[in-house]
Structure formats: structure tokens, C-alpha cells
Amino acid sequence: MQEEIWFGKYRIQKLLGQGGTAKVYLAEHIKLNSFRAIKYISKHHPLYKLQLKEAQILKDLKHSCIPIIYDIEEDEEGSYIIEQYLEGVTLKDYVMERNTLSEDMIICFALQLCDLIHYLHSVKRPVLYLDLKPENIMVTGKTLMLIDFGSAIYRDEIKSKTKFYGTIGYAAPELYNNHPVDEKSDIYGIGMLLYFMVTGKLSYKSREDIKHIDYISNCSKKLKHIISRCLRYNSSQRYTCVSQLQKHLSAIMNNKNYKVMKGSSIEIGIAGSQPRIGTTHLSFSLCTYLIQKNISCLYIEYNKSRCLWKIQKRYFNLKKNKGVVKINSIPMVNMDYAQVMDLSKYNIIVKDYGSLDSDNKEEYLKSQVKILLLGAKDWELGFSEEALKLITEYKDIIFLFNYVDTRQFGQAQKSMIFRNCLRIPYEPNPFAKFKDKVSHDFFKELADLCFEGVIS
Hints:
The protein is built from 13 helices and 20 strands. It has 456 residues and is α/β, with parallel strands linked by helices. It comes from Herbinix luporum.
């Protein structure tokens, strides 16, 4: 290439690469004696306006994993984005050279991605990236840099007929099936990058060609569970937000496994939006799951239903110890006895508040972990709306939806963005060991959420 000077200050060194819509050149800033990358976008390209929007998005973003935009130039042929020059290799080349990465390195990279994507979702005008793939990420030392925002879009610009440009095999399925596109679409993208880093295999075909993560040998069960959840076809079954995914990845790194300090307890308050929504059933099921994990639990009936008294009438020869009765391995007590007990010997205290109302609201909100059961059917929505009004300013509540199908759950989640929402699976016997994977995964996820933020 003959020496060229662009805009009177950039000496072009070489062509670094080109894609379908742009060319990227290495340039030297003559006065500063430093390198820049210049992305040239032709005005004659049909996607010119879309590519130029990348610069408009990037100019307002400041994050350690996003290249700095120094300037934007324009002439009659096209536009030129002058940005930070990065030395390194793409994540694709980085992984292919090594075949696979260690789990610690994978999680380290994934946490950087989570921090970056969380930033994009949280800025004043939230941005969805929508095209996470190994070629769009540079590895410079141990730091990841996102280098292509050509498919990014402001969240408030998404409409029902918006056309998306994610890469098939990496982009979330809803980009192509007319289902709602939102923050969980980027969570799918993080899942695909995790899958690539674990397997070392690129994917440019449909999701049906992806080998199931359970069959991958060089990956812990916990990381498999995270990847599997990120890649759920139905977006409502993925992580609610990136920060939730980030916490689960951090838990693996920190090797936290439901540990509670000796002599202390975690108090979980469970309430419902209406009578008979399932607070007692869920309380028993959660206790059953935790006891199976060798975590000591105490169930406290913190309502006036007298369900505990009714259960005791059905059993013979139950032994009581200072008001505590053990039923199907779960120690149970009513709220009157609980007020004079030493609760410190139990790791977990599950308080069943029944229906949430103005009388028990204050006590319920004192719980370290707060769970609220909601209904989503037409005749239940009024109850759910009234319950939400009582706790609207509290952001740390886990919301569970009972007796809803996938469509109803998806509809309910639309108004619960950035909230921890789960759908309770059908489990007829709360005292039985969970045999099906759906129930086991649900209670594992619920337990993970309960322990987040309360374990030092």
C-alpha cells in the first residue's frame, strides 16, 4: 500500500481486516506517535446507516472492556471511526490455539463479560448487544475487549417488526422467531461463549447441532448448570438479569456451597398474594430440599391457618420437644412457641406468613430472604397487584409464580424486569425426595438465590 495520510494526521500502515460492511485499518497518529484503528464504512453500502449507528452508540459508552472512540470523520465516500488500537487475538483464535481453557480462566472471562453486559443494560439509555461471538471479542493479556457494536441497539428502539442482525448459531433464537427480544437475549449470547470456551467448538448452525452440555466431560456440574440455563430456548427460563448470572459464576469461583456460620441462622420469610396460593406447600418443599442437603431447618407457622395443628391430628405418637414437633424429618413449631425458643442451632428458619397484608408486612420485611408467591391468572391479578403495592420499594424480594404455564409466566415477567422471578413446578408431595430434574433444578436455583447476599 502506498503511504496515505488521512485527514492530515493519520498515516495508514496496513489493512487489519474487513467484513461484510466495513474495513479496519491500522494507522499512526503522526503528532502523537501512537497507533489507532480506523474503521471505514462506505456510504454506498446498503447497511451504511446501521453501521454508522455503532459509532453513535459507542461515543457515549465508557467501560474498560470497550475500545475508546477518539473521533469520527466523514467524506463523500464514507465515514471513519477512529478508535483505540488493540494488540491481541480474537477469543476465537485464543481458544482454538489452546483447544480448551481451564474452568478458572473461563469463569474469569465470563465475569468480565457479565460486568460489561450489565453495564450496557444499566446505562441511562440501555443498550442490547445481541451479537456476542468469539470473533467480536479481543483478548489483550487477560482482558476481554468487545470490538464490534454493529448489531447493538438501544432497548427503547426495539419494536415488533425490528430486524436484528445477530450471527446464526450464537444469537438467541428469539431474534429470528418473532418472540420478544430483551436483556435475556444477551444472556443467551454469554451462554454460547461459555459453551465455546468449554468445548472449543465453533457454532454457525442451528441450536439443534449443538452437543448437549451434559455430555461435555471437561466441565464441572455447576458450570454445566449455568450454561444450560443461559441457553434455554424459552427466554423466561434463563437468568432474570446478568447480575444474577454473575453471582452464580462468582459462587463457583469462591467455592461457596450453602455454608452458614456456626451459631447463626438465615431467616427466610415466605408470603403469598392471596389465601391458598401455596405458601405452606412451598415452605415444606424448601425445607425438604435443604434437609436433603444436610442443612438444618426449622419451619415456623407464622400465620393463623392452624395447618400445623391439623397435620398433627393426622399423625400418632408424634414427640414434642419444647413445642417443636418433627413431621417427615422437618422440625415444625407455631409462632407462639418460636418467640421463646433459641433458634441459633438451626441453619435455616423458614417462616410461613400465609397471605401478605398490612398486619404482617412489617414482620415479613424483616426477613433476610423474602419470597413472595404470586398468581398470574385473570382472577388472581388483582390480589397480586395489591400485594406488590405493599412491597413496591423493596428490590431484594424473590417472586415465585404458582399454577402458571410458560405463556402466563412469560407475560407476568414483562412487568417484572430486573426482578428475580421463578415459576414453581408441579410437585404434589412436599415431603418426597425430588426425582424429576425440573423440580430439583427449581429448588437448587431457589436455594442459590436464598443464599446470595447473606453469606459472608
